[in-house]
Amino acid sequence: MSRRRRDSSDEEDVGHSARKRRRGSENIDIEERLESLITRVGEKSTSSLESNLEGLASVLEADLANYKTKIMRILCSCVVKLPEKMAVYTTLVGLLNAKNYNCGGEFVEMLIRNLKESLKTGEYDNAKLIVRFLADCVNCHVIVAGSLLSMFDNFIEVTLEDNIPQVRSDWYVYAVMSALPWVAKELHEKKEAEFNKLLSTIDNYISKRQKIHVPALRVWTSDFPHPQEEYLDCLWAQIKNLRANKWSEKQIVRPYLAFDGVLCEALQHTLPQIIPPSHNEETTYPLPRVVFRMFDYTDVPEGPVLPGSHSIERYLIEEQIDRILRTNFAERKDCAAALLSFPSKNKIPLNYMIVEVMFSQLFLLPVPPYLEIFYGSLLIELCKLQPGSMPQVLAQATEMLYERIDTMNVTCIERFSNWFAYHLSNFQFRWSWDDWSTCCQMDPELPKPKFVKEVLLKAMRLSYHQRMVETVPESFEALIPEKPHSEFKYEKEGAGSMPGTMVAHQLISAIKSKCTPEEAMVLLKDLPNPLSEEESDPTYHPLRIDVFVSVLLHLGNKSFSHSFAAIAKFHHILKLLADTEEGQIWLLRTMFEVWSSHQQMMVVLVDKLLKTQIVEPSAVANWLFSSEMQPEFTKFYVWEIMHATIRKMSKQVDKLQQDVEDAKDKLDAAKRKQADGLMDDEDEEIPTDDIIERMEERLEAAQNQQKRLFLIIFQRFIMILTDHLAKCEGNSIDYNTPWYKWVIERLQQIFLLHHELVFRYISTLESLLFTSDIDFHILEIFQQFCALRS
């Protein structure tokens, strides 16, 4: 009997848990359905947007009782993740608020919490989108216009704070200005006096800002044919234009206008007071930028007219294209499709605007938002989808960029050459080369011939030498790269009289016979040190390094893999021979002698030597600035090596920093467990205080090494530029030569590309190197860099 009772109770338990599971899965299904409905509203549909919004609002209202929190979270997520459909979601929130006032209030509260959190954590892009959404909620009668104006006033009051960087006040002013196209008309109608006062404060701020940083961020040094404006100046000019047009624009889709009768009856919410978090030194604000302009209406041959550079429509369209790129950057096919189905594509020259926005991002200084390859692959995808029009627009853009290249920033010339080489490689390297043939008669150091040569060098990496020879006309012969090959001086005519030749040949035989590293070292021992005559105790042995490295690279010259295998096998010997910085520089010089005609091989080998710690970053920097490398100094591969070296050093410091933090966290966790009596013998190995101390010492050594690397680079820049300027002044000639342009802008590039690292050492640089007694032309670059965050 008891057993039977137990059996039936077991059955009840099973039934209860099954029902619970069913309810759980039903809840998940409903939540997924809600998410799908909300995120997909506004996409192509057989019904009108208005009927879809009305239907969705009714569905959501019915589900509010059980799924209110989930619905709120999905909507808040859409605010920042789907900003291109902002007006759709503000309308939806307006309809929900009209049906359920408390729901509207809770949503606004959640959005305000998200805004405060974004401002506190430095997620400024999300914060800007939330501010814009709140502004549009005024149009939907969700938020009282006066309370939004109070929030704007609080943001603008940041400009009155003392001892803050300009980038802080810039961002808060920009957040307000970028929301005005959506809400200005409403504010003007309802709160004209207060709104005019706000505009007057913004105007006053814009007119007084310092703009020392602007030259460092310009793509072109010339304002012809298009002025290169700072972003706040440009947006303010566009807003003043909007004001002159009585706050009317033709670009924003406003679905809430169809529901005006319903929405205007709704009760509105007053925003709580929002005080921007106070400034602290750890906060990193978005950097200023210069607006890139490449086209105007005269460049568009037919069809819709391109909006003027100071029309608000230009800003709104560019902002929307930028949003599409941000939303879809991880998937080029989706991104291309989204761009080409732009909502008002028939009213604007869409292809021109897409190309301009993409190049503006590619050329953005200090760094583009995404990998350079993204822009190349996306442009190719766009050409595939619109073969009848996009290639022509892109060709026109390329011609315009080439024609203006003399005043283009060196960093942008480099990105332009990388993109163009990649693009050509996808189109059989076809181009109207004859149109550029005049560059073949120019000084090879001028931007046009330099650009063409670098394009061919990059294209050769994606193809092969003979293809380059066959691709360009014969008139380009002077710019065609040399065929890559290795030079082995110990096999050349007359090599017999050179010291080390006999040992070099013995070494070749030994390595081919698979000798051990120790046996190879025995052969090198007999070589005399040429430095012994000058120094009693030389710090390195140039002849041993020269012979061994020449032989090793000669034997591994078939491919990258062969070279890597040779370095791996004889790693110990290379470390012994190059145990001082002078020895490492000599090793790099020897590598250059062997592979001077193969830039890519040198880039890859230096990277390998750094990775295997055979050479130090400081040795690479000193080698690149050495007198032997002066003829190569303006070639792009030199700076590819330099930037890779800085990044390698940075990664090493970051890794050591992370290791120290992880070890401290483990130790703290172990101490807490021990205090609670929860220690387990099987717990993973716990670092001791001594281990952490040694790790911190390694970190400090790496940080000092990084600091020294930057000091070497900037000191050598100052030396060569000062020498050039002094020589020009002494000979009464113009200092602004092609060489000077490449070098001074490379100095600027080091500052910009590695700005986060360099800012750590800014006080040291200011006190030791960039003092008031150096030439103004050099000091000016440093001052522009400092102004980026000042």
Task: Give a nutshell description of this structure.
This protein is mainly α.
What does this structure look like?
This protein has 790 residues and is mainly alpha-helical. The protein has four domains: 30-264, Alpha Horseshoe (Serine Threonine Protein Phosphatase 5, Tetratricopeptide repeat); 292-427, Serine Threonine Protein Phosphatase 5, Tetratricopeptide repeat, CATH 1.25.40.180; 489-615, Alpha Horseshoe (Serine Threonine Protein Phosphatase 5, Tetratricopeptide repeat); 645-675 and 687-787, Serine Threonine Protein Phosphatase 5, Tetratricopeptide repeat, CATH 1.25.40.180. Helix 14 crosses helix 16. It has 33 helices and no strands. The model is unreliable at 1-9 (pLDDT under 50). The chain is globular and about 100 Å long. The chain has helices at 2-40, 49-81, 86-99, 101-121, 124-139, 145-156, 166-190, 192-208, 214-217, 231-244, 260-263, 312-328, 332-340, 350-362, 372-385, 390-403, 410-425, 447-461, 465-471, 501-512, 517-525, 542-555, 560-569, 571-577, 581-595, 599-611, 617-624, 636-675, 689-730, 738-753, 755-758, 762-768, 776-787. One of its GO terms (molecular function) is mRNA binding. Residues 646-712 form a coiled coil. InterPro entries: ARM-type_fold (IPR016024), CBP80 (IPR027159), MIF4G-like_typ-1 (IPR015172), MIF4G-like_typ-2 (IPR015174), MIF4G-like_typ-3 (IPR003890). Keywords: Coiled coil, mRNA capping, mRNA processing, mRNA splicing, Nucleus, RNA-mediated gene silencing.
